[in-house]
């Protein structure tokens, strides 16, 4: 079974995935990390040197190629569900979980990890909040296609939700 974690950048998809997978006895993959290793470059360098379109095609290819015959938790990049038919592909291949987290925590995380994320590099805190509001508004319809919406649930709570939704 495949479990996909989706949501805005900084919502903790990698943290949840890393911790949830061993509790389920599943393997874990972070799509951004997979792409970085495959390309031998950071996401920031891929955006700068090859462009966003190139990165989006790599995300799409990764999701399309995923073998459904494995137990795997997949953390996706914040934009992945919003390009091509990626959200439909994920819904067909497995269980999608939307981490619709509290805004303040997400902003705090983004301010800490801003340098790694090309789309928000160089924004002030106020600009970041505007970016968050606008981008979330346009991305929400995609994220909301996820089968489960877990709000601010922590990892053990997500595990309980999964047990109740077999
Ligand atoms: C992106 C989010 C990033 C990464 C890339 C683009 C986005 O992943 O895929 O910088 O478009 O929201 P995280 O959600 O892990 O930050």
Overview of the molecule:
The chain starts with a strand and ends with a helix. The radius of gyration is 15 Å and the shape is globular. The mean pLDDT is 96. It has 166 residues and is an alpha/beta fold. It contains eight helices and five strands. The chain has a single domain, classed as P-loop containing nucleotide triphosphate hydrolases (Rossmann fold, 3-Layer(aba) Sandwich), CATH 3.40.50. It has a five-stranded parallel β-sheet with strand order 2-3-1-4-5, sandwiched between helices. The structure holds shikimate-3-phosphate. Shikimate-3-phosphate (S3P) binds next to loops. Shikimate-3-phosphate is lined by residues 9, 13, 32, 43, 77-79, 117-119.
CATH class: Alpha Beta
E-strand count: 5
- Bin the strand percentage: 5-15%
In this entry the ligands are:
shikimate-3-phosphate
Domains, number:
1
**How many DSSP H or I helices?**
8
CATH architecture: 3-Layer(aba) Sandwich
Overall structural class, as computed from helix and strand content, comes to alpha/beta
Which radius of gyration do the C-alpha atoms yield? 15 Å
Let me know the CATH homologous superfamily: P-loop containing nucleotide triphosphate hydrolases
Q: How are the strands ordered across the major sheet?
A: 2-3-1-4-5
Provide the residue-averaged pLDDT.
96
């Amino acid at each position: 079974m495949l479990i996909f974690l989706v949501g805005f950048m900084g919502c903790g998809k990698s943290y949840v995935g890393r911790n949830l997978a061993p509790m389920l006895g599943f393997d874990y993959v972070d799509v951004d990390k997979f792409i970085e290793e495959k390309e031998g470059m950071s996401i920031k360098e891929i955006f700068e040197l090859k462009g966003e379109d190139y990165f989006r095609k790599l995300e799409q290819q990764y999701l399309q190629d995923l073998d459904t015959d494995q137990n795997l938790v997949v953390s996706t990049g914040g934009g992945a569900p919003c390009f091509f038919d990626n959200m439909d592909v994920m819904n067909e291949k497995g269980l999608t979980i939307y981490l619709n987290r509290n805004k303040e925590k997400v902003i705090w995380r983004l301010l800490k990890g801003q340098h790694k994320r090309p789309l928000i590099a160089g924004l002030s805190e106020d600009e970041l909040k505007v970016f968050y509001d606008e981008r979330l508004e346009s991305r929400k319809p995609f994220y909301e296609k996820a089968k489960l919406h877990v709000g601010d649930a922590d990892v053990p709570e997500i595990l309980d939700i999964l047990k109740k939704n077999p």
